[in-house]
Batch of 2 targets.
Target 1
Amino acid sequence: MKLDPWGPGQIEDYAKLRAEFGLGVVDKATWEGVKDPSPLFEREIVFAHRGLEPVVDAIRKGDPFGVMTGLMPSGKMHLGHKTVIDQCIWYQKQGADVHIAVADFEAYAARGFTIPDAQKLGLEEYVLTYLALGLDPKKAEVYFQTKRSRVKDLAYRLGLYVNWATMKAIYGFEDSVRLAHVNAPLMQAGDILHIQGTDLGGPRPTVVPVGVDQDPHLRLTRDLAAATRVFSVTETKDKKIGVFVKPEKPPRDVKTLLGDVEGILRRDLGYGDLKRNDAYRAIYVGGANPNDIARIDLALGQYEANELGEPGHFAPASTYHRFMTGLVAGPDGKPGKMSSSKPETAIFITDDPKDVEKKVKRAVTGGRATEAEQRRLGANPYACSVYELYLYHLANDKVLAEVYEECTTGKRLCGECKMQALDLTQAKLKEIREKREASRHLVKEIVSDQ
Ligand code: TRP
Ligand code: SF4
């Protein structure tokens, strides 16, 4: 399987993808002990993660954590794009500060947009809808990549830690690729890591909710976070000893650094059994286990940032949501993902109600060839783009269970099911459109001018 951030692909087998890329499972159990888990998690629309544990931990303890995501303004916003903002809003309610990049540079570099066009689309299509959906401007900021010089600056510096062979291996770039495009992933890494600047909250758990096609960027970013660190924290080979801390790139005299670290481990984190080895430039933390690595790493990241003036980047977590399936199949007869470049596959937030009606009526379902057959055998909601509308956006648990039960037992026919979905979609879109108009005055509040 290949993940291409700029490709058209729809994923066929999410469990296989998780296994192949070594992603963690996100399901109901992930959020045990967290108040009001989002239906997106319970319904496994968000189905995988990398390194999410410290974020869940921060939520449970009420500790600060950040959310960073971005949008590429290369088309109109559709229902498939709503998932990410639903998550941001949920995280906000859990106490997060939210940062959103309008990737105008990426649209320029990878999609051939002009910067003004990309910015206009970003504001009109996305930011306004985000506000309409309930994103709280008091705990969120939106910025443009082209306007934030510290992101560009960081992107440039991060280029020191990655070479062409790696970029080619991750992204499959051809020799003909433009360097502006090659730079886009570094820009995105800059987006993700810069929110750990001391003035924006410092090193802390952060989560990046994105579609799974973005995983290559996250792998790169997590590697870059580690590469810019002073200290590494790893499990010792001898499992009995525990964890071991080593300054990889000491900016100061190693003895002083190790002395400081000893203090942090003992005083702040409560580890009594420390063995300092000056010759190996390392400290062995007895009694620590691999589950402690994150908290030690975080404390040292904060020390790097606050005391050493280093970035101290704490590895960002990511979560991956499924793509909504297009309402109609592609030219090859296979279902693709809902896509702005194929308007017949997508319901846009600002679609005219007449278009919405046409699209839902034409949508591919999991129904049987004849009514009699469907009454007898039931239909397949898992192969149905209309069911996805309910699942992602339209139904509470009760309604969803009803649709599922009636569909699979043949009590419900696709025609009537579509009419119900259509009514609910129209009502939802009407509400969003009204709120969009009522939110215009908030744009200034949420969008940063740099
Ligand atoms: N590349 C992302 C996309 O195509 C947009 C993006 C830019 C982004 N910067 C980001 C996503 C930072 C997450 C975090 O949609
Ligand atoms: Fe889809 Fe509804 Fe038909 Fe079931 S009855 S296949 S959910 S349209």
Target 2
Amino acid sequence: MTQAEEKLKVGLAAAELAEAGMTLGLGTGSTAGAFIEAVAKRKLDVRCVATSEATAAMAKRLGLNVVGLDAVAEIDLTVDGVDEVDKGLQAVKGGGGALMREKIVASLSKQVVYIGDSSKLVDVLGKFPLPVEVSAFAMPAIKRDLEAFGAKTTLRMANGKPFVSDEGHWILDAGFGEIPDPDEMDIFLNMTPGVVCHGLFIEMIDRMLIARGGRIEELTPPNR
Ligand code: 5RP
């Protein structure tokens, strides 16, 4: 089975978790897109909060009812993709640049189910460059801090200009090779002025569905 087929399969499996009456959090990216298409096909009466402008546009085009956080205090179920996840269910997200809204939506959700093809499960996080969303003003200082911490950094670009997130910030992609202690990195980044969000999702996932060939593997956090 190809990676694209695994994405479709896991998107379809996650769509079965949606129920009429639910408020759903819709992730961003190709795997989340497979979920959104499958859930739209089920024609359930659901409300949806989108984690990006791109996802909101897609969901509306498919006929889903997209609402803002003014209409919603709590989200029943959020389904989103990952760039990397380890067996402890710590993840790296933000390859699509939607990390900030993705983290906000996950934090408001009763159940967070992340989905991925088999390439996303890793032993140690860090091969995928960690997206760090920053204030443009602070970018040079944060770049120096990240490099002092051992990262090779790249300012994310789009059409020859810095990529601007839906929240209006720039993204530094920080390649560490390995992040042996994600908790320490989380604390370091949270304490760095000008970092508005980062792509480490620590203790946020309730269930992880991984498509491997024709099967769906389910992982749950070790200490819950
Ligand atoms: C977007 C994300 C995506 O979930 C992540 O990049 C995975 O994307 P894909 O499903 O296309 O592989 O975090 O910000």
